[in-house]
Amino acid sequence: MPFADAQSSGKVNALVAAISISLSGTVTKGDLVGYSGGWKRADSDLAAGPIVPVVVALKDGVSGDIIKACAVAIVGERYSGGTDGAAMYCSGSPGQITDSEPGASAYRGRVGVMLSSSEAILDLPAIQQAHRLFISHIIDINGTAVDAHFFVATQKVKVKDIQACPTVAGTDAGAVSATVTRCQGVEAPPNGDDLLGATKINLKGTADTVQDPALTDTVANLILSAGDRLAVDVTGALTAVVCVVTVELEIVEG
User: Fold this and answer.
1) Domain boundary, last residue among 127, 153, 179
2) Confidence of residue 237 (pLDDT cuts 50, 70, 90)
3) Same domain, yes or no, for 26 and 58?
4) Are residues 111 and 155 in the same domain?
5) Given 20, 77, 93, 169, which residue has the most CB atoms within 10 angstroms?
6) Are 211 and 163 in contact (CB under 8 A)?
7) From CA 152, how far away is CA 155, in angstroms rounded?
8) 221 and 198 in one domain?
9) Which 8-state DSSP code applies to residue 126?
10) Mean pLDDT, rounded, of the chain
């Protein structure tokens, strides 16, 4: 049975001191609540920009009500189909949580962990800490193909997104592309695990235009342990190519 957040009034136990907030929208007990022109249901992918979760509502309320809320709570009796220990995220359905990580354009911080199939601990202060980092590698080849490592993991991390932007597009007549690989042990860049799906970075793509190719479906390959490396593997004649590749990483706890 897939995970579901019924958003009905569940059981909420505050684990830290409660605060009072004045609502600017309807909330249900156990909802994730953030601030955007007032306190309202959090939303990971609101078109106008995510409403980042800050607290958990401790009671139902409507716009104009003053309710109690807290940053750390155990919430139950509104969830079903959860997996013990599964990371939970702010949903695109306002106020709810989900076990499906939101996409690259959404707020993707973890908001808690399932304790059972129907109960979760939501710990928002931990989520607001910096758990992500960004690294970049500039391909400036001008005719000489160089596959190169550009990052060595010092702790366990997960690749969350890969984007690229050519400054100068390649001019060779043939296809010119690049991918990012995960290298382990003594693997050279071309021998690592390809971290992109079928679509690669097009090094002859339009200059100054961001490319955001999909990651591989092999999720295990996106995890780097200490000592693993990221590398760029290029294909084709890189005449005139200048391109920056940026990788977003998330620190994996434990």
Assistant:
1) 127
2) confident
3) yes
4) no
5) 169
6) yes
7) 9
8) yes
9) H
10) 88
User: What is the CATH number for 186?
Assistant: 2.60.120
110 contacts 127 by C-beta, under 8 angstroms: yes
Statement to judge: residues 80 and 22 lie in one domain: yes
Q: Which range, 67-71, 130-134, 234-238, is most confident?
A: 67-71
Strand order in the sheet with 97-98: 11-14, 72-76, 119-123, 110-114, 87-90, 97-98
User: Is the pLDDT reported for residue 128 higher than 60?
Assistant: no
* Last residue within a domain, chosen from 87, 106, 127: 127
Task: State both tokens at 173.
Answer: 């007549």
Which of 200, 101, 98 shows the shortest CA–CA distance to 160? 101
Segment 1-26 mean pLDDT: 92
Structure tokens that stand for 251 in this block: 């620190």
126 pLDDT higher than 70: no
Per-residue pLDDT for 114 more than 90?
A: yes
Which residue range is the domain that position 171 belongs to? 132-251
- Name 47's Cβ contacts closer than 8 Å, sequence gap at least 6: none
3-class secondary-structure state, position 134: strand
Q: Are residues 137 and 91 in the same domain?
A: no
